[in-house]
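Hi again,

Forgot to attach this to my earlier email, sorry! This is the prediction with iron/sulfur cluster bound. I've pasted everything inline since the attachment limit keeps bouncing my files.
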Amino acid sequence: MTTTFPSVLMDRFQRRVDYVRLSVTDRCDFRCVYCMAEDMTFAPKQQVLSLEEIYEVARAFVELGVGKIRLTGGEPLVRNNILSLIRPLGQLRGLDQLAITSNGSQLQRLAPALHEAGVNRINISLDSLQPRRFRQLTRHGNLDQVIAGIDAAIAARFASIRLNAVILKGRNEDEVLDLVNFAMQRGIDIAFIEEMPLGLIDEHNRALSFCSSEELRTIISSQHALEALGDPMGQEGPARYFRTAGSPTRIGFISPHSHNFCHLCNRVRVTAEGRLLLCLGNEHSVDLRAILRAPGYTLDTLKRGIIDAMAIKPERHHFHLDETPDIVRFMNTTGG
Ligand code: SAM
Ligand code: SF4
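Structure tokens for the complex follow:
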């Protein structure tokens, strides 16, 4: 008997889910202060989805009408043999956008191969242009290596390159203009992400370090006249974009605190352990790994699990910046 499945994924609030963020590892070569604690325990290898299992998940979503996949982590490019996952993903019919979010540390080596494998969009995190400070914020990162990675991505000619910056008061807020100017010099986009209360971090008080998108816009406007660009969701997700005259660079703001975009949410996430998370700010989830490893597994049982999961996608998140995080998951576990 053949099962027929819907060609699109809809949740109970009539939001179409057409974008999946797949975390391919919870591990990372950095320990950014807003993302991880200094000492982290990572998932044991056998609990992490194999590259073949991740491919099955991607295939199921694409057959259910998902047109965009972003690979993330942890640091996706520290996963062994990652290209052996990315190459077949690049061949998946129906997948229009294959994107990756990276800290840039491996890009000098991998950018050309990623582009060749079909990755068309890349986001690279960059929070400081000062080597010592960069090291402090990432705890392990080497700024020169990351800048070389960004330049390698530019040389590889991805359709879209965006820098992601998290600005913390008292840490790097004095670099907002430098980061914008760096992006403008290279003709690439930049987005500023408000810090989200994911995971218990030990290094700073999130409420005190919080820098709103409005504050950042005011800083940038002191040097650049910002012109708002249309549709806030469009193909780009929750970033609100601005442009400055005479430059191709778009400056985006992702503001989960100051601007709630839940009513437009089109995405779900899959953790490295195969947990399908229906919302960044809630714990509603479905264990896809259990489906993948159950006796009698077929692609259809996986698709059925995904369709059923749409019924529990929450209406919205409730982030608060108090000391106790709403969500104990770290961003690297969530797949940022
Ligand atoms: N390692 C890759 C990187 O850093 O780009 C991909 C994973 S990382 C979790 C994805 C994005 O989430 C990065 O741009 C990072 O700056 C951001 N991020 C991490 N923790 C965050 C937090 N608590 N609040 C807001 N953004 C966060
Ligand atoms: Fe690693 Fe990215 Fe988290 Fe930094 S933000 S610790 S690079 S996963």
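Residues 23 and 242 are 29 Å apart (CA to CA). The longest helix spans residues 143-156.

That should be everything now.

G.
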